[in-house]
Structures are given as structure tokens and as C-alpha cells.
Specification:
Layout lengths: L1 E5 L2 E5 L7 H8 L18 E8 L2 E8 L12 E3 L13 H8 L9 H13 L6 H6 L12 H14 L8 H6 L10 H5 L18 E3 L5 H4 L1 H6 L2 E3 L9 E4 L2 E5 L4 H6 L1 H6 L3 H5 L5 H6 L2 H7 L5 H8 L3 E6 L2 E6 H4 E3 L2 E2 L6 E8 L5 E8 L10 E10 L2 E10 L6 E2 L1 H7 L6 H14 L10 H19 L6 H4 L1
Parallel strand pairs: 1-5, 6-7
Antiparallel strand pairs: 1-2, 3-4, 3-5, 8-9, 9-14, 10-11, 10-14, 12-13, 15-16, 16-17, 17-18
Length: 472
């Protein structure tokens, strides 16, 4: 049985863990406010809130239900747009702002916007307009031109400014943002358990290990509905981000949002929010796991490129045995991995940056945000003044696999920084790659992008020392 709370209703269902949460909501619970749009996690029409009980209370995140396996609802509070309605047909503050500012026309996308903004209201962070606007970065509207929605968001943010530190659910209920039942959800969640640890088969795996589902439910949704799924998303042992022996260990089931919010990661990567904002949308960052992005093996996987430049190592497990694989050796060919079917990733680790370490990540895509990269690239340099003592470079979109640029990295080792050194490193990197022409650009364009991104790395890291004019 899968047990969770759906809006104000306790659910215990024998439904298959692999059916999409969206289908359960619409077809078995007959809650039609959650819309079927793209079924790929892109449009946001099916957005729901997923609430998890922590020691300090409930924490809510927006997620796209079309690519969320029902099993990942175990032990959670799932909120649809109907669950945000006030009694007697009253509109809550978010709904009222959308009406007042003309933020809806056909209305198909509106429920998703309302739910995403409801998640922003429930955030434990203080509100500001930029955060409120970012909360709907995964919601697409084809009617209003967005400006009316932006005005509604501004109105909502102004009302939230009255909330002071320490005020949360009670204040939101009193001010008409939420219905009253929210205040009792934490107590009701006490009796719910998270999923059991996955069972590792002794022979061939009959099914799939799955984290957030953001790739598998796009690539093969029918198979996911029929398969045995070994759910990894809420395994406590796989969700930790911690430091051991001067290394950072990221649990395989940690989401992109977990990495973004990690104090450890923020302390060592000052531009972390700038980098991760380029990775998909809020809803997908709340769902997509680190291991899923790596095992997906997309040649343009953002986190694969990020971690390759950190010279990261994977820890894989089968039954009680573990082994380690350097990430640069993990990719053997297009979608071919150094991983057995019965193995799964339990963590990724890398040496923590020091005061003499510099890191940068760059990405170019047709849209700045919420898009797959044409080319992405990352670099890590260990320096002593202008001397480069060690270098690690990676690039995506230029080979059949996420590519570690070994020759360019080796060339940079021991070099003193100069424009000529950077140009030569870019030339060597271009000899290592083999891009193809596709909808994201021609092979020639991608080679040019790679050169420019390598230049951008050095201009960013050595700000004031190197300029674009020096390099071109």
C-alpha cells in the first residue's frame, strides 16, 4: 500500500508505484484541476506541491506530477490546486491576485501557476519579487504574454512582506493564503513512513532503480508504469551532503535543489546559485537527482559536466559490495556506462576546493534558462599566483559522452597564465572533441562555442588580468 495525504484526504492505495502521480490524481481521485500538458515536465500545467515532514515542521516543494512516480508520494503531503481552495468558494490570495490582474485567459496553465506560487508562499525563506518570479520559472503560459501574471506576482509579494520571521502556517491561514487544514498536516504526517530501502537483486535486475524520474518518465513512460521500481528518492542514507576527510560526499538521491541549498556547497562555490539556475526549472530541480543526471549519460548533462571538472568519483553498490569509479572513466560510449545492471550509485565525492582553487561553469542554450545546452563547460584550476599547478576541464555537447578534456588539462599543468596559453588550451580542446550538427547548432558553431566558453572561464577566474580583447 502507498500511503500519503492528498490535500485534506488520507490515501492508502494498492495502485502500482510506477503510474504517474498525475494519472492517479486525475483518473482515480477525479481532481481535474491538475492539467495534462506536455507530459515531459516542461510546461508546469501539472504542478503539485510535495510536503515532507522535517524536525522543524513541513517543507513544501513544487514538482511536476506528470513525471513523478506515484511511489514517490509515500509518506508525503501532496497538494493540488483544489487543496489550496478556501471554504465557501472563496479565492485565496494567490487566486484573487491572478483574477484582479487578468492573469488568466484560457485558464489551462493557471492552476500550475497558482500551485507554484502557493509553494513560494509556503517557503521558509523571506519573500522578495525575484524569488516569487523564480517560483514560476517552470510554468509556461501561451495566452497572457506574462505581464499580467507578473503583476499578480508583484501583488502577492507585497502581501507576503507583512509576514515576519517565525510566522508561517498560522499567518498564511489567517491572511487567506491557505485553508485551515494545513495547520494539522504535520501531526497527521507522524504516522506515515518513507519508502523502504531498495531491494538489490542477486541476479539480473527485474525493474529500474529510480530517483526523481525526470529522465526515465520522459524516455520510456509506458515501461515505467509496468516495471518494478526500486525507489531511491527518499532514502535517508542517499540524501546526505557531508564532508569527510576534506572531501565532499553528495548522496546519490540528493536533488539539484538539495545541492543548491547545501551550506557546504554554497561555502565552497560562491557562484553556485548562478550555475544551478541554468539547470532546468524549479520543479525539475526539486525532483531531479544527482545520480540520475549522471547515469542518464546525456552528452550535455549539466551536473555531469560540473562534476567532471571537479574530478569526482562515483561510489556504486551491489548487495553489500561497493566499488569506486572515477567519473571521467564512467562513460564508455553513447549511453554506455561502467556499471552493471544490478549496481546503483550511492554517492559522488570530490576533493573540496581550497583557497588556491578556482572553479567556473558555463552554459549556452537557445533559451538562457529551462533549456538543454548547446554546449556547456566547466573548469577547475589549482593555482599559485599566475602558475597553474593543476587543471581539470570538461565539456558537453561536443562528443557522444560528457567529455573530460584530458589533453587540454594536461597542457595547462605547470603553465604560467597568459593569453597565448589560454588560446593554445582552447585549440587543444577543440582537437579533442567531435561535435555533430543537430537542432542545437552546427558542429562548427559548437566548436566556436567551446572556444568561447574556455575563454570565459579564464576571463571570469582571472578577472582584471585577462580580457576578451586579449584572447580575440
Amino acid at each position: 500500500m502507498i500511503e500519503f495525504i492528498l490535500n485534506d484526504t488520507s490515501i492508502a492505495t494498492p495502485a502500482a508505484v510506477g503510474i504517474p502521480l498525475l494519472d492517479f490524481i486525475r483518473y482515480q481521485q477525479h481532481l481535474s484541476g491538475t492539467k495534462i500538458g506536455c507530459r515531459e515536465g516542461d510546461c508546469g500545467a501539472c504542478t503539485v506541491l510535495v510536503g515532507t515532514l522535517h524536525n522543524d515542521g513541513m517543507h513544501y516543494q513544487s514538482m511536476t506530477s506528470c513525471i513523478t512516480p506515484l511511489g514517490n508520494a509515500q509518506g508525503k503531503h501532496i497538494v493540488t490546486v483544489e487543496g489550496l481552495n478556501l471554504p465557501q468558494g472563496q479565492l485565496n490570495q494567490v487566486q484573487q491576485a491572478m483574477v484582479d490582474e487578468g492573469g488568466t485567459q484560457c485558464g489551462f496553465c493557471t492552476a500550475g501557476f497558482v500551485v507554484s506560487l502557493g509553494g513560494h508562499c509556503l517557503s521558509h525563506q523571506s519573500s522578495d519579487y525575484s524569488k516569487a518570479l523564480a517560483a514560476v520559472d517552470g510554468n509556461i503560459c501561451r495566452c497572457t504574454g506574462y505581464k499580467s501574471i507578473e503583476r499578480a506576482i508583484h501583488t502577492i509579494d507585497e502581501k507576503l512582506q507583512a509576514k515576519t520571521a517565525g510566522q508561517s502556517l498560522g499567518w498564511l491561514v489567517a491572511q487567506g493564503f491557505l485553508p485551515a487544514y494545513f495547520t494539522d498536516i504535520a501531526n497527521r504526517m507522524q504516522g506515515l513512513s518513507l519508502p523502504e530501502p531498495p531491494i538489490t537483486q542477486s541476479t539480473d535486475l527485474d525493474g529500474h532503480y529510480i530517483g526523481g524520474g525526470t529522465d526515465l518518465y520522459v524516455q520510456k513512460p509506458e515501461e515505467m508504469m509496468r516495471s518494478n521500481l526500486y525507489l531511491m528518492f527518499d532514502q535517508e542514507a542517499l540524501n546526505k551532503i557531508e564532508v569527510k576527510h576534506e572531501r565532499c560526499y553528495i548522496g546519490a538521491a540528493s536533488s539539484v535543489s538539495d545541492v543548491w541549498q547545501s551550506e557546504i556547497m554554497q561555502a565552497h562555490f560562491p557562484r553556485l546559485s548562478q550555475y544551478l539556475k541554468l539547470v532546468s526549472s524549479t520543479q525539475i530541480r526539486n525532483m531531479g537527482t544527482i545520480a540520475g543526471n549522471l547515469v542518464n549519460a546525456s552528452p550535455i548533462g549539466d551536473l555531469s559536466i560540473f562534476l567532471l571538472a571537479l574530478n569526482a568519483t562515483l561510489v556504486l553498490k551491489h548487495q553489500d559490495q561497493t566499488r569506486e569509479v572515477p567519473l571521467r572513466d564512467f562513460y564508455k560510449g553513447y549511453k554506455i556506462l561502467d556499471k552493471q545492471p544490478t549496481e546503483y550509485v550511492i554517492s559522488i565525492y570530490f576533493d573540496l576546493p581550497t583557497a588556491h582553487t578556482a572553479f567556473n561553469f558555463e552554459k549556452v542554450s537557445k533559451r538562457t534558462h529551462l533549456d538543454i545546452a548547446s554546449v556547456n563547460a566547466a573548469i577547475q584550476l589549482k593555482t599559485e599566483g599566475m602558475l597553474i599547478k593543476e587543471a581539470h576541464l570538461s565539456a558537453g555537447g561536443v562528443a557522444p559522452v560528457p567529455l573530460y578534456l584530458a589533453k587540454a588539462a594536461q597542457y595547462l599543468k605547470g603553465k604560467t597564465l597568459s593569453a597565448e596559453v589560454v588560446k593554445e588550451a582552447a585549440r587543444i580542446a577543440n582537437d579533442e572533441v567531435a561535435p555533430i550538427s543537430d537542432v542545437r547548432g552546427t558542429a562548427t558553431y559548437k566548436r566556436l562555442l567551446l572556444r568561447q566558453l574556455i575563454y570565459a572561464h579564464f576571463i571570469t577566474i582571472f578577472e582584471g588580468t585577462l580580457t576578451l580583447e586579449d584572447l580575440v
